[in-house]
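Ticket #4471: structure output looks truncated?

Reporter: J.K.
Steps to reproduce: submitted the chain below (885 residues) through the standard prediction queue, then opened the result file.
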Amino acid sequence: MVISTLQRRIYVSGAICGCALALLITLLDLLGWLSPLENWLYDQRAVSCQYFTPKPSTDIVYLDIDNEALETIQRWPWDRSRMAAVLNELKLANPKVLMLDIIFGDAQKNRIEETPDQQYREIEEDPALTNAIAGLGNVVLGSSFALQPAMDSAAKRRADAVQLLTRNVLLEAPELLNLLKLPPNDRDSLRSQIEGEFTEIRRDAIRQAVRNAFDSGKESLDSIQRNLIVSLGKPGEPVPYKLKMHLGIIAQEYEHVRSERILYRAMLDAPQQRLSALPPDATYSTIPLPTLCEKMAGSGYTDHQDRVVRSVPLFVQVDGRFYPQIALVTACRLADADLSKAVFTDHSVTIPAAQGNICIPVHATYSETMHRQVGFVMDIPWYGTHQWETMNDWPSHRAFSQHYPIDSVWSVVEASRRLQSNDALLDECLKFFYELDPSFKHSGIDRPTAIDRLQKDLHELGYEQLLQSDPMQRSGDEKQIVRFMTALKDAAGQNALLPAEIKSQHALLARRFSGKAVLIGATATATSDFVTTSLHARCPGVVVHGVMINAIVNRHFLTTSPWWLNCFLVLLAGLVATAITCMLPPARGVLLLLLIGFAYFVLNGRLFYDRLNWIVDAAAPLVAIFICWGGVLVVRTIVETLERLRLKQEAAMIDHEIELARQVQKALIPKKLQIMETVDSHGWTKAATTTGGDCFDLWRLKDGRMGILVGDASGHGLGPSIVVSQVRALIRSMCDLYEEPQAVLNVVNARLFEDLDGRKFCTCFLGFLSDDGKLSWGSAGHGPMLWAPTSDAEIKELDGTALPLGVSDDPCAEEVIPVLELQPGGWLAVVSDGIFEAPNPKDEQFGVERINECIRATREGPSEASVEAIRRCVDAWQVKPIPDD
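Returned output as attached by the reporter:
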């Protein structure tokens, strides 16, 4: 295929532009500038590409603290004794692991509760929860950590302040500021910062001091308080309020540091091999009480740092150790995997398990908070619809599935408490009636039998009649008897049904929770533990943990493609778009690119994401397709516009030159047609284009004869006009050297053959006419040539005497041709092929005979009349103003 210069310029310019744009988009993608679009496309894939998603595990169930629970049980947060009661009931259901997405970070004061017998008892909140967790033995607790960004100058100055205050926690803000060496240019701002944050700085300093004491082996609160505060006052004297406040802070931080030390058991040693990216650095925010930490089976962090949760780091780095995410800890316990033996690489975390190793693909991503690459990030394989409640109703996603309200457990707690309360009330009733009438007492029998006999005795003795009596007429003793009889009847009736009800509910809880992972978390709309995900505008954090657990248990993971593959796809998409834009018309090109873009998105979602579980960039290749299309199209338009302008300029120059040629050729037409007084001569020519290859000339030779020239160069336009002009000039010049026309033609032919090399030719008639009517002539392939010696003589047609000029270097003709004699009234007509070959609409030629007819009709008149008659007939024959030749 021959490529034009314009096409070559379009290809080269488009290729340069397309490659540059593709490289630019690749760079922008690596820098994260396309992340918003990529995240949106990721969400679309998560919503619509679930054809190959495996069925969610039925071993994961949720116990929701929902709106009804807050109305039924108590406003959030609950008393810990209530949560302990729920856990005690769950223990009977025998779950394999229980995850509490609730952080119990602060101690709760004991509560005073009124008993059914109108007594009061103290409820120990934290001990009750501790005992419940210890009784279960398989509880995973959550902790909260704050990411620790890279330290700027202000953070470093604050750290220096904490370090100084650690040495003496009793220093006040002015004293601390005097010890700090503040730079003069930032002194005022740093001073105001430290003064505004001094309370937090002191607490951080106390916590660090307590940590130092633990590291040195001093773990007694009393010894730590004495070391941090030198003077605790004299024995017997009241402790100053300010000092007492410091002692209280030390006690709080002491409990916090105790929890930190216990949490070390849940942390992993950092791997020894060199890794390209480490987990994000984090500091303790809210962690469980030390008594709870001692009884828990595991712990993990629960925070979600991203505004939209699409991925989660499996670990955070705390004091040089790896602290796992709570879903990872829970999933490992459910799958009988040993997290402590995890093997780390840059792209995976491998955990040995009973049913085969669990290999979790991870990747690194840039953290705006940390200002560095953060490693061990797991992409969350979402499933379901926009309703998180129906995620596990596979595959219809219509009904609530594997979500149970915590009321279902609390109702069992309430029934058990009612049973216990009723038993206490029945014991009180028995005691009352035994004291009222010793004959009621029956020794050696159980409570239910004693109650049955007591009720029969009361009926037989007529005590039940008191229930029908007028309350206003009853005595004080009778009112007491009625009250206890009513309580006895109600409590006995309830206790007859409650054991079966409790047993049924226990069986139901066992079917729901036995051997499974039970996730307890807040799903009520009033709570704050909601996040945005790829599928949900508001999703409880516990559901996010459940989806991660499901992925680990099902071994269904998403793998992020390597950066080089994404770069390759971007460059490939850009080059394809560039090639299509350069090679195809704009309309077809954009349709094809739209089809390719749609096909890539479908391929990316259905094959890569859904079938192969690869997260391959969708945004950057699609952007590359359409940005490169737009850029290359602009370049193509510019190149074509510049080419059109260039061609327009060249055309204008050519038109100008042709016009000059036309004027020159027009100037060569004889101005004076009457050369000799004894000869009536006339001629006419009309070019089919601006210039033409036909010409005629009439002039007087040196010897007085009249020169007659009719020439017709092959072709149309500027080239033939130059050839015929050259022929005219040569003939004019040669006529002064040679007396015979054929000799002139032979010389001109030799010269023209050298110039044209046989590729072009020119037919030519040349005649020399004297006063006495003798015509010397020659014809180089030209015709027709019509003549008659007299006005009434028969018209004769002359034959050519040689080949057209320029065809061959051999003249093929004698230099002297017999002379024609024209008598008075005789005539000569020489025409070109543009006359006799002129076509009509039926493509029929005008012909020589019609020329003869025009001449016969007008030869009695002047020659101009004959020429005009021929012209009119030809115009009428062609039926168009512009001739073909």
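Triage note (M.O.): checked the attachment and the full token line is present. The two ends are 35 Å apart (CA to CA).
Status: closed, working as intended.
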